[in-house]
């Protein structure tokens, strides 16, 4: 590729709504362009990265014996009614109607459609096992799309679905996918952990998330450095603590704190890991003196359950979690548009139901800690018919420093970005959709299923969170938009530079290297700044003076200085 023929559109400034570094850098590097909330153009530079991610995923899925298929983005509601998900799924599912007022959904995932294929195609146990996958656009009407491609509404996912004749076979399919995922994430050069995740009603350990370790991650993961124990915070367990640990009710008690408390100071006071408090909404009442000065702040920690995340709440200031300042009741009331005095002070003499009279997503479906056992406040979602949230007695299932369940060491907590998820489904979908095959005994039998997702467009963002510096992105070779950039200096002035640059470019192309020649005629400073921002891992600079001595300069994106190479050594060096 020649830069003059390509689209390079780097920006000096990051957009105002970019909170995390990957969003800032992908936008500044001209890789993505926002079209609407959670909806992005994948610009040519970004698309090259995405295509490389897809290629690796595709290669490893094929190697693992999965078969590629493409299922429609727009799917008839009938199939979704068979499983009940058309009605049961919340507003994340985008429902649309065609000109005949027939219902459709935009696929957030494809269990229904793939099960429909299976019940038509896989008639006999002899055809099993089968694993169908696609790399396809998804739409989820996320409550709060943010962080660029990390939590988009439209995004690309690789989703695979396995069909087996029985439970044992399904476990083998699951393990095969799990191994494939490890190979995939190893090839991306990412630091990640496979952690146990909730497998819902089915139980057991057959659900794991692949989490890229990053301080900006939305998930908390618990692991033991001495063994392979790792789980997400929702699923994590520990051996009973040896020493006394405050009883949960105490730990969640209303505490008097100075008005200028921080998340950290209260976490410390309550003996909670910070990672857990950041998943909490903090309700506070200020006690003021006659002059209106805050003399003390009463604080409740409301631990949100399920999908709710702290940052979604946007009470107070949530820039870096450590800076989080507690919101006062008044601030929360204002934020949710409640009447002053609506929320508090809350009488905790008995369990209280806090009814919110309009759809305020965050105030629904949550449970809080209380100052006495069983005196919890629960949120109720008005307007939507969700089951009542259960009251959680001990929200602190694991604290950093607890003993790991295998007894091999102390647990640590760190943050992660979910880039993949493998899940054993059992017969949940095949039962609902009457998807059967003829078993060896001649009887129609429901498929045992598994589903396996990878966030194709989230992955580059996660990679950047893990690998960048103040100048820009540092791509691993495997998914860099270009692996090598050739930067000639004064190409328009020096025939020698032009000839050598073109020659090197042609030779690298012939070797199959993904190289770009920067023939735009930019000055060196601007040219280098662009490529450092874009994050191309290998750079070769050719100048007239060096070339006359037979020398060019090589620099890896991580190097602080360039290395001089003889012209003849370049190819060997880059191979
Ligand atoms: P999250 O917990 O981040 O909302 P999820 O558990 O809802 O993700 P899955 O249903 O397990 O996601 O989907 C499989 C993969 O798709 C996830 O592991 C993630 O990498 C990716 N993914 C999910 N939601 C999004 C999104 N809004 N934007 C980009 N990628 C996403
Ligand atoms: Mg989700
Ligand atoms: Mg998740
Ligand atoms: Mg998941």
Kindly list the characteristics that best describe this protein.
single chain; about 575 residues; alpha+beta; nine-stranded mixed beta sheet; five-stranded mixed beta sheet; 28 strands; about 25% strand; binds adenosine-5'-triphosphate; binds magnesium ion; nucleotide-binding
Strand content: 25-35%
**Unreliably modeled segments:** 242-264, 273-287, 294-333, 335-339, 341-396
- The number of helical elements comes to 17
Bound molecules: adenosine-5'-triphosphate, magnesium ion
Global structural class: alpha+beta
Radius of gyration: 27 Å
Number of beta-strand segments: 28
Could you report the average pLDDT, rounded to the nearest whole number?
79
**C-alpha termini separation:** 18 Å
Helix content: 25-40%
- Taken from the alpha-carbon principal axes, the silhouette is globular
The profile of the biggest β sheet is:
9 strands, mixed
Write up this protein.
The chain is globular, with a radius of gyration of 27 Å. Residues 242-264, 273-287, 294-333, 335-339 and 341-396 have low confidence and may be disordered. β19 and β20 form a beta hairpin. The protein is built from 17 helices and 28 strands. It is α+β, with helices and mostly antiparallel strands and 575 residues long. 41% of the residues are buried. Bound molecules: adenosine-5'-triphosphate and magnesium ion (3 copies). Its EC number is 6.1.1.15. It catalyses: tRNA(Pro) + L-proline + ATP = L-prolyl-tRNA(Pro) + AMP + diphosphate. Belongs to the class-II aminoacyl-tRNA synthetase family. ProS type 1 subfamily.
